[in-house]
Specification:
This protein has helices at about 15-25, 25-35, 65-70, 85-95, 105-125, 140-145, 160-175, 175-185, 195-200, 200-215, 235-245, 305-325, 360-370, 400-410; strands spanning about 5-10, 35-45, 60, 75-80, 100-105, 125-130, 150-160, 225, 245-255, 260-270, 280-290, 295-300, 340, 345-355, 375-380, 390-395, 395-400, 415-425. With about 425 residues, the protein is an alpha/beta fold. The longest helix is centred in the last third of the chain and has 20 residues, at about 305-325. NADP nicotinamide-adenine-dinucleotide phosphate binds near residues 14, 15, 46, 192 and 307.
Length: about 425
């Protein structure tokens, strides 16, 4: 065996470190499976003085990522630096040079995927991004290849490890949000800017990528209605529990009337749904397809080695293709589709109101809901006096009507504050 595929890595932080560790530890099996030795010949980082561990020789480290892309001793570029720039320009250059690229960069793919897929197609080389969605879970290949003969109707996912870890600990331990976020950062789950996680943007990027693959179209991150978990409180979690739900940050994509509805937000999810059992930094993607039925893909959604596993799998794939002068399956984006505005969503809602504790308040609130065609399924009071709150759960209602209701409630004198509004997803999810 004397064939060598030479890898140039852009970045060697959490994920890059996992990749280097796996390539070193599993080298013999990887060589046997690939039909060639995979060797890291160059690595670009910002700080060349940082210790990168025993898996990387100091001599391969540089601070110039373009030098790595253009180096003659690099056959495959592995982009694990993150961000849109310079990562996007580096990937384009690699593709132009005919070098296959493996990336974990969901932010870039969710914004510029269509252009990058086209560049890869034009160059006739692979662009692989399994690690960009749901860490270790194989989901890109199943969507692109295994389900290519089916008709995907809906994708629902827990797509962010950091927020699922935070919500799990808040639910199970009553833990404090800020303290748990710090733990998620220390464990390597969070993005360099964790607002991407807690604000729902990281999950929105992944949801856009999945929706594009599911429906053969182009969905970009900005098309995804996005709300994060920052304002989820202990009271919301307690109410959900009492009603038989858990709160999860969900990414939901479906087609309604030939338009794509795609949204990421915290939601009440029945405890009986398979996604409700997904705890900690684990992710899961629930796919409903016409012929296959319901599928669930489950596993670690973040972290060095889980994500490294997906990157190395892609590297082996593109290396095998390189050896055979072949290329893998490409994306089909043949169906241009409009995005369905969130106002047209129909689902149930949970609304928590800080109210005055006196007779007639419930009647005032009920009138406002009735005026906006929002019907109440359940209502009760929590607390007394200054801490009185009304908990409302609606029947199916239109999001636009619910929003108008909330605006109107803000103007009701006995309602001191609209404390929480969360969507309640039933087993079949809103449409
Ligand atoms: P990270 O720990 O911050 O690592 C980024 C690496 O890129 C570092 O080695 C950094 O150098 C290097 N870098 C950044 N900008 C650079 C520049 N302009 N020139 C040269 N080197 C540069 O990030 P990460 O968590 O590994 O994430 C990497 C990518 O994987 C991101 O796209 C992320 O969204 C994605 N991802 C992450 C996870 C996860 O669990 N962390 C899971 C799935 C996907 P220094 O080390 O010198 O700072
Ligand atoms: N920050 C991301 C998460 C990493 O928490 O899921 C995996 O993409």
């Amino acid at each position: 065996m004397d064939r060598v595929i030479r890898l140039g890595m852009l970045g060697c932080g959490t994920v890059g470190g996992g990749v280097a560790t796996i390539l070193a530890r599993e080298a013999d099996d990887i060589t046997a499976r690939t039909g060639a030795k995979l060797e890291i010949t160059r690595v670009a980082v910002r700080d060349p003085g940082k210790d990168r561990g025993p898996a990387l020789a100091d001599s391969v480290v540089t601070t110039d990522p373009m030098e790595v892309v253009e180096a003659e001793d690099v056959d495959v570029v592995v982009e694990v630096m993150g961000g849109r720039r310079p990562a996007g320009d580096l990937i384009r250059r690699a593709l132009e040079l005919g070098k296959p690229v493996v990336t974990a960069n969901k932010e870039l793919v969710a914004h510029e995927g269509a252009e990058l897929y086209a560049a890869a197609r034009a160059a006739g080389v692979d662009l692989a991004y399994e690690a960009a969605v749901a860490g270790a879970i194989p989901i890109i290949k199943p969507m692109k290849e295994s389900l290519a003969g089916d008709h995907v109707q809906r994708v629902v996912g827990i797509l962010n490890g950091t927020t699922n870890y935070i919500l799990t600990r808040m639910t199970e331990e009553g833990a404090d949000y800020d303290e748990v976020l710090g733990d998620a950062q220390a464990l390597g789950y969070a993005e360099s800017d964790p607002t991407a996680d807690v604000g729902g943007h990281d999950a929105a990027a992944k949801c856009a990528i999945l929706a594009s693959l599911a429906f053969d179209t182009t969905v970009r991150q900005e098309d995804v209605f996005t709300a994060g978990i920052e304002s989820v409180t202990a009271t919301d979690i307690r109410v959900a529990d009492r009603l038989g739900y858990v709160i999860k940050l969900l990414g939901i994509a479906s087609v309604v009337d030939d338009r794509v509805g795609v949204r990421v937000h915290p939601a009440f999810l029945p405890k009986t749904h398979p996604l409700a059992a997904v705890r900690g930094s684990y992710n899961a993607v629930f796919v409903q397809a016409r012929a296959a039925g319901e599928l669930m893909f489950y596993g670690p959604g973040a972290g060095a080695e889980p994500t490294g596993s997906a990157v190395v799998g892609d590297v082996i794939d593109v290396a095998r293709n390189l050896l055979q002068t072949a290329r893998g399956a490409t994306e089909s984006q043949h169906r241009p589709m409009e995005i369905r505005p969130i106002e047209e969503l129909t689902t149930q809602y949970y609304v928590l109101l800080d109210v005055e504790d006196r007779a007639g308040v419930l009647a005032q609130v009920a009138t406002v809901l009735g005026d906006h065609d929002v019907s109440i399924a359940q209502v009760w009071q929590e607390g007394r006096g200054d801490s009185a709150q009304l908990v409302l759960v609606t029947h199916q209602a239109r999001e636009g009507n619910l929003r108008a209701t909330v605006d109107a409630l803000d103007g009701v004198s006995s309602v001191r504050n609209v404390a929480s509004v969360l969507r309640v997803e039933s087993e079949v999810f809103g449409s």
